[in-house]
């Protein structure tokens, strides 16, 4: 194939642009030899980072939001001059919802591409798969999902909530508001729902002095909840505490509604439904039920309004933003702040600089990095409406992250 | 053990009975189309689940189009959408038979591989067309909610709808197989293909119609399931295991077998799930099936057809 040679003018354009850019930033920009002593992919003008999510396979449904939010943050940082005067270049890798693939791609990003940091993973399984790679190759991972805790690493910054942050304040609220004493715990059958239910049970039994009248798990993808619903009707719990994940969610809430269990008669609190899930479930099937999350798209503050507008401008007016999407958006900003505080791209220096970092521009409000690499954050209770948006009824104080909670294990 | 009122127990007993029957109708709808194709033609259609997903996506499309162009038709579109799902799936099925399956009748293992490949292609097509997120059609209000004859007793309307649909489809299929001339030709072809050809039955067109029929029924099943769950690109792979379970347990070549096995599996599962917890109930159900198949490897109602 013959290619047309671009005109001299067009070939020169980027060069002129670069010259202009370097003229502006040259004074503020520290030399590469100083800010990069470990051989990362940092040049005088660019820094390369990795993005590692599932763009295909069963998890693509959930991870798409994180991919979009991280990209948005990176674009905004670049437009504002980059990090230490360097534009961020992204290498996107697809974990394909397959955990060994995640590990392989993580190794590729760290060893071959020498990326400055990685934004990625969604499920705990994928994080567990890449963790040994990040620790051995000394990389840095910004992980966006709320998760079960029981983990802490120098090489990971957890931008979502760990389980106690999400569970305890939520339970306390429902007990106060609804005078709840009996709880029915329902989850999908894997590590996150099981660990979360364990923490919830400890809190209900030891602190609230209530009773758990049922605790059950259903396989991922389970669609028939008839028998379960009958048991709920028999036990008549004050609160259904739901940690059902993925496609099962839709069946679960549709069948609850079909069996006459609606918010008029039953209180339901979930820690697994965000705006993303509501798209599939349908607001009309959730009306009046509660979610405990640190972020809702409807949050009424200036940071969030700007964020929601930018997100919709880029990805369409119909796109929605859930808790994890927002946490994904924090990743690049926290990394930028750490690099600038350390005045270096070196992983060890970023890890050391991270504790104590504050982000006042976060859509969720204000967050601060704890020495255990998790974030101080608030918990909110949202009540779902037919339009698929939540009305925020309660906001806690900033909650200290405690990934290894004493008395809850 | 806590004490429950007699009234409560009575209601639960009724609702639990209905939960079992409701699961039965779901399994039956899943298995019927597969039973036609597997039982009558000996073709193992690994893309069966994707045909169900195609049916579900058809309903979703109809829902979106109705909301856009004829909102007043909203309450009724669902019934029409089921027919459209049947027709579209049957047409796609006929095309697949013509393009692919008919070249592979003498190579059963290759059909397995080919239809599996087809399932991957269909999944990716769904993903490219409708996106990776799961979708749900807007259901008419009369389908949601419950029939509640007295306090504490709620029978889900969507469950009754699926049950009615399953009965209607089964009856239609039985009538079609045993009372129509096409059914006669189909059964003749299954029993002795060469002889049927010799007496003037066009066995090629019988095959195509049977495959299209099986796919069409899968489409109805998928359409019906939009009342219960959501539809994603890989929903099909979730359905296929249960569908095969019903057909294999029932005895591959018999519609009555599928009926009996769907009923047995559904009751076992819903009762075990009630007394054990979710995952354990499923495990116990599968164990029962494994033991039953060890004792009776040919399934509940094996066909008495001679192998050719």
Helix-strand pattern of chain B: HHHHEEHHHHHHH
Rg of chain B, nearest Å? 20 Å
Helicity of chain A, in percent?
Answer: 40-55%
* Total count of strands of chain A: 15
Spatial sequence of strands, sheet with the most strands of chain A = 7-6-8-9-10-14-15
Beta-strand portion of chain A reads: 15-25%
Work out the largest interface and the residue count of each chain: A-B, 38 and 48 residues
Rounded to the nearest angstrom, the radius of gyration of chain A is 23 Å
Largest sheet of chain B: 2 strands, antiparallel
With strands numbered from the N-terminus, the spatial order across the biggest sheet of chain B is 1-2
> What is the CATH C-level name of the largest domain in chain A?
Alpha Beta
Describe this structure in words.
- The complex is a heterodimer of chains A (409) and B (308).
- Chain A has 409 residues and is of the alpha/beta class.
- Chain A has two domains: 33-161 and 301-376, Response regulator (Rossmann fold, 3-Layer(aba) Sandwich); 163-293 and 380-395, Response regulator (Rossmann fold).
- Helices cover 42% and strands 19% of the residues of chain A.
- Chain A has 13 helices and 15 strands.
- In chain A, the strands form three sheets. Chain A has a seven-stranded mixed beta sheet with strand order 7-6-8-9-10-14-15, with helices on one face. A five-stranded parallel beta sheet of chain A has the order 2-1-3-4-5, with helices on both faces. Chain A has a three-stranded antiparallel beta sheet with strand order 11-12-13, with helices on one face.
- In chain B, a hairpin with a 2-residue loop joins β1 (146-150) and β2 (153-156).
- Chains A and B meet through α3, β7, α8, α9 and α10 of A and α1, α5, α10 and α11 of B.
């Amino acid at each position: 194939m013959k290619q047309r040679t671009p005109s001299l003018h067009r070939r020169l354009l980027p060069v002129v642009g670069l010259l202009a850019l370097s003229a502006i930033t040259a004074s503020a920009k520290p030399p590469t030899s100083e800010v990069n002593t470990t051989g990362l992919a940092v040049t005088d003008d660019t820094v390369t980072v990795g993005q590692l999510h599932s763009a295909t396979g069963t998890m693509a449904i959930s991870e798409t939001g994180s991919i979009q939010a991280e990209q948005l943050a990176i674009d905004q940082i670049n437009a504002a001059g980059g990090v230490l005067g360097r534009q961020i270049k992204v290498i996107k890798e697809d974990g394909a919802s397959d955990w060994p693939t995640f590990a392989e791609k993580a190794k590729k990003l760290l060893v071959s591409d020498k990326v400055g940091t990685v934004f990625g993973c969604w499920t705990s399984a994928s994080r567990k798969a890449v963790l040994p790679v990040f620790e051995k190759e000394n990389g840095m991972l910004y992980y966006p999902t709320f998760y079960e805790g029981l983990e802490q690493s120098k090489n990971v910054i957890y931008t979502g909530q760990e389980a106690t942050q999400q569970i305890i304040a939520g339970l306390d609220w429902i007990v106060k508001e609804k005078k709840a004493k009996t709880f029915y715990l329902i989850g999908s059958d894997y590590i996150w729902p099981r660990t979360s239910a364990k923490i919830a049970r400890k809190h209900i039994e030891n602190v609230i002095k209530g009773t758990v009248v049922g605790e059950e798990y259903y396989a991922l993808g389970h669609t028939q909840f008839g028998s379960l619903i009958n048991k709920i009707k028999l036990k008549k719990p004050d609160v259904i505490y739901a940690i059902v994940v993925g496609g099962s969610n839709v069946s679960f809430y549709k069948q609850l509604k079909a069996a006459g269990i609606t918010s008029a008669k039953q209180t339901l609190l979930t820690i697994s439904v965000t705006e993303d899930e509501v798209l599939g479930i349908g607001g009309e099937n959730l009306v009046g039920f509660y979610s405990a999350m640190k972020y809702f798209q409807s949050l009424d503050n200036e940071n969030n309004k700007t964020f929601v507008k930018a997100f919709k401008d880029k990805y369409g007016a119909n796109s929605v933003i859930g808790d994890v999407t927002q946490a994904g958006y924090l990743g690049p900003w926290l990394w930028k702040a750490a690099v600038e505080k350390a005045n270096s791209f070196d992983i060890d220096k970023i890890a050391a600089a991270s504790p104590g970092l504050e982000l006042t521009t976060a859509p969720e409000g204000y967050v601060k990095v704890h020495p255990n690499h998790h974030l101080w954050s608030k918990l909110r209770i949202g009540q779902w409406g037919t339009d698929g948006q939540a009305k925020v009824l309660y906001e806690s104080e900033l909650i200290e992250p405690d990934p290894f909670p004493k008395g809850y294990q | 053990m806590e004490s429950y009122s007699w009234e409560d127990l009575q209601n639960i007993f009724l609702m639990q009975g209905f939960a079992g029957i409701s699961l039965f109708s779901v399994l039956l709808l899943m298995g019927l189309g597969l039973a036609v194709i597997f039982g009558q033609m000996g073709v193992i259609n690994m893309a069966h689940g994707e045909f169900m997903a195609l049916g579900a996506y058809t309903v979703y499309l109809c829902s979106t189009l109705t909301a856009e162009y004829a909102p007043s038709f909203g309450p009724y579109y669902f019934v029409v959408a089921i027919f459209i799902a049947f027709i579209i799936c049957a047409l796609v099925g006929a095309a697949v038979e013509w393009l692919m399956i008919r070249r592979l009748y003498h190579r059963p293992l290759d059909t397995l591989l080919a239809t599996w490949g087809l399932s991957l292609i269909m999944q990716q097509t769904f993903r490219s067309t409708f996106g990776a997120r799961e979708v749900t059609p807007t259901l008419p209000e009369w389908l949601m909610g419950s029939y509640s004859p007295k306090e504490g007793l709620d029978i889900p309307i969507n469950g009754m709808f699926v049950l009615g649909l399953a009965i209607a489809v089964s009856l239609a299929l039985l009538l079609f197989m045993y009372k129509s001339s096409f059914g006669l030709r189909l059964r003749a072809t299954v029993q002795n293909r060469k002889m049927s050809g010799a007496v003037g039955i066009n066995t090629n067109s019988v095959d195509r119609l049977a495959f299209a029929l099986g796919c069409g029924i899968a489409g109805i099943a998928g359409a019906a399931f939009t009342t219960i769950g959501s539809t994603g690109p890989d929903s099909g792979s979730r359905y296929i295991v249960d569908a095969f379970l019903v057909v294999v347990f029932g005895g591959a070549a018999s519609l009555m077998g599928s009926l009996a096995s769907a009923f047995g599996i559904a009751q076992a599962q819903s009762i075990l799930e009630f007394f054990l917890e979710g995952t354990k109930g499923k495990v116990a159900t599968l164990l029962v099936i494994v033991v039953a198949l060890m004792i009776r490897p040919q399934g509940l109602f094996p066909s008495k057809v001679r192998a050719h």
